[in-house]
Amino acid sequence: MTYKVKVTMEPGPAAICAWYMFDTGPLRESFGGRYKGDDCNLEKLLFFYPEDCDDNQKKDRVGCCEALVNFTKVFSPDKPCSAVHLEKQRHAYLECAPGVWCVLEVNNPVDAGAEGEAMYQEEELDDLWLQSLLKQSYDFFRLFHGNLSQCWERMGEDGLRSALANFMPRCIGILANQISQYLSLIHI
Q: Which of 46, 50, 79, 62 is nearest to 147 (CA)?
């Protein structure tokens, strides 16, 4: 069964822009592998939604997230970056396993301003709530497949990627629905 979710890379109504998971090295290293070269961000990617996104965008997003997380660890080693607020988007980060990060990017809701210009509602989406959606989606995967190390050990790296690709679109559909319901509730 295929699940389609409204996903957009462009600003617009509150919608999931992207959901992805990448390994900064510890998971692969625990199975004797290493990422090679300076341009290995696509290799680090375990799952990316939407799947039709350009590879260069995927690499750029992983590189930017990894750099942001590493930079914030300098100032707070025990509590790395968990959210980023942008005018048009909100990003939530969750370290679901050592060195493995889940990222949720959501467009901020938009209202028309007095002169018809877009007014982004930057404070409508709560960081902790978005992180709980990330944790919920990973916990749901873990319930059926075990943790990432167990899944990798049982099925190999390609098997883990396949399990995520087959399972996560359903979770993302549920997340998109929850975001929509949440926003409709706060605008009553």
A: 46
